[in-house]
Amino acid sequence: MTLQICVAQLNFVVGDLAGNARRIIEAAQQALAGGAQLLLTPELALCGYAAEDLFLRPAFIDACDDALNEIARASEGLAGLTLVVGHPARLTDGSQASRRERSVTVPDLFNAASVIRDGRIVHTYAKRELPNYQVFDERRYFAPGDKPCVFELQDAGGQTVKVGLLICEDAWFDRPAREAKAAGAQMLAVINASPFHAGKGQERESTMRERVQAVGLPLVYAHLVGGQDEIVFEGRSFVLDASGQLAGRAISFEETLFPIRFESRGHSWLPVADTDRPHSAEADLWHALVLGVRDYVGKNGFPSAVLGLSGGIDSALVLAIAVDALGKDRVRAVMMPSPYTADISWIDARDMAARLGVRYDEIAIASEFEAFKGSLAPLFEGRAEDTTEENLQARIRGTLLMALSNKFGSIVLTTGNKSEMATGYCTLYGDMAGGFAVIKDVVKTQVFRLARWRNAHDPYGTGANPIPERIITRPPSAELRPDQKDQDSLPEYEVLDAIIERYMENDRSPAEIVAEGYSQADVDKVVRLIRLNEYKRRQAPIGIRVTHRSFGKDWRYPITSRYRA
């Protein structure tokens, strides 16, 4: 006896209820044509993840209900197929989406999944474990469920199979899986929207292996793919047998209908599926960044992107990511040399633009720089030039890029990395000006590794070896004053990034970091810079999250604070 399950690893759009419902119905039709008895969609697939405060609007929940009913009606023509659809659900029929007063919000919603077949909703399961850490804020919107859900299927031979349904965080705890088994489940189906960060895929598979080994049931993990604002979902759906061994894995960072065949073996079911090989850490990061750019630009309706190409490593990396995401015809690079720009910078910028075939323009800013200085000269009389004049150059460039954005509708991609965001080595309303910060969560040392990786690989066929070698090997410089180098103001990047990881990402104390062998002076300097530059980061554009703690929803520190670590 065999059971065929199909995972709809698809890229849904938050709020596109009609479009998401249509895609689920189309996936169901394809799954049925392929012989499937069960289609699994990801967590909250119907409305997209995460809809955030849209969940507080009763009209939004009404629209979700209407879309779910549309899917149920469509299932009348899908005889033999059961669908599991993730969606928000009211606690009781006819209640408001939530009760809100001036000082309190009481969630009256479940993060739910409905089992649909033959034109009706057979079961609705409410997620029991609601995450409220990192980027998650589910207790703001949802109430927890308290009951297991086990539903029956008929396999190809008419044999009954009992499936225990879980939603994402449920499977990270023992109790929901144990209770599903106690209720008769012979296998587990877990639907998910679990944001990507480096190493998260292996962590998921390891945790699900522990869950499987604890209950002795095979498990299907159905995962979302796509970018939503600053977070990315990488797909990589998978299936484990009852011993916890990987039986199949879907491709990462791409949409797919992932088929899984279960064969009956006595009282157990053995899964069989194709297995995509895991990517290297750099490949995963690259695909996440490309997907994040493609979906942010595409889902928000920008026709194209523009960025300042300086001849340095950061803007070179962003250009390569943008071209892989959007194609060369939708990316424009602008070189804006100042009096301190080295000849090799514009030579390398021209070289890289030519390698990737993007539109390339040069706008010299020397005259604008002198005009600004002239206007300010009476006010600055008697004061030496300092970072003020350096920042003027960055702000002129930001103004020019935003003018191009306004005129042509292009989104400005900023090029600052996480090391700069942490320490404030960036100019407010200058190089921070723009709509989307592509490498905001990538530290400088990782920038170099990604550049090397991209020069060795061409995953999207947009051009081999796109970054000139000199861009990678020359000492980094903002080129805002003569002979400037980043390390004039900052520790070596290997040291800086290690301190950022320990202090900012992992909450280690300065004393603990010093005990690991880092100098007191370096640790004190980096910690001080992180604290002082919170006001800048609050005004920065959002950017793609690729670590377990980014400068975004993961990081909520007061700007005004006298606490000193």
Model description:
With 565 residues, the protein is an alpha/beta fold. The chain contains 16 helices and 22 strands. The chain has helices spanning 17-33, 58-74, 174-182, 200-215, 281-299, 313-326, 343-356, 366-380, 387-408, 418-423, 444-456, 469-473, 493-505, 510-515, 520-532, 534-537, and strands spanning 2-9, 38-40, 82-90, 98-100, 105-107, 109-117, 120-126, 150-154, 160-167, 187-192, 219-223, 225-228, 231-234, 238-240, 246-249, 256-265, 268-272, 305-308, 331-335, 359-362, 411-414, 436-437. Strand 16 (256-265) and strand 17 (268-272) form a beta hairpin. The radius of gyration is 26 Å and the shape is elongated.
> DSSP strand (E) fraction?
15-25%
**Poorly predicted parts:** none
User: Sheet with the most strands?
Assistant: 7 strands, mixed
How does the helix and strand content classify structurally? alpha/beta
Shape: elongated
DSSP summary: helix tally: 16
Question: In what order do the strands lie side by side in the largest sheet?
Answer: 7-6-3-2-1-16-17
